[in-house]
UniProtKB/TrEMBL annotation:
Gene3D superfamilies: Electron Transport, Fmn-binding Protein, Chain A. The keyword S-adenosyl-L-methionine does not apply. GO terms for cellular component: cytosol. It comes from the Bacteria. InterPro entries: F420H2_bilvrd_red/Heme_oxyg, PPOX_F420-dep_Rv2061_put, Pyridox_Oxase_N, Split_barrel_FMN-bd. GO terms for molecular function: coenzyme F420 binding; oxidoreductase activity, acting on the CH-CH group of donors. It comes from Nocardia farcinica. The keyword Oxidoreductase applies. This is PPOX class probable F420-dependent enzyme, Rv2061 family. Residues 23-111 form the Pyridoxamine 5'-phosphate oxidase N-terminal domain. Keywords: Oxidoreductase.
Amino acid sequence: MQQVGVLVIAQRRGGHARTLRYAQLRSYRSDGTPVDTPIWFRCDDTAVVFRTKRGPKTRRLTADPRVALRPCDHRGRVRPGAPVLTGRARLLDGAEAQCAEDALRERYGRQWNILPMVRIPGVVNVHRDLPLREKLRRARARTLWPDSAIVRIELG
């Protein structure tokens, strides 16, 4: 757990320990320009997994799997001097993706399926334009959404 320790380190707030909930993912465009995005994640011994909508980010990660992660807040703001972890990303599929989806749901609880569809000031929500009926169906779903991908980042 040493490699991912920076992301799971407990912070003291009001006498209670809590685990970091957000990380800033840095991926790279084909011209090498970095693109930073805040993500929800789950760590295991040597890797981080997260869910994202299929689109520009998944295309960037497929074309160039190099990534960097830093602790951040829900808007992607990183404190000066925050440590950086580097790794290589790959998209998961099948049972491996569903296992990671279940682990993410376990970590974030009900908010895992609900918050991605709610408008939060200052946060880009890629699922905001879904019809209400589809939002409700997805909120109850226990499977990976059809327009989403699970990404695993091997750190090191």
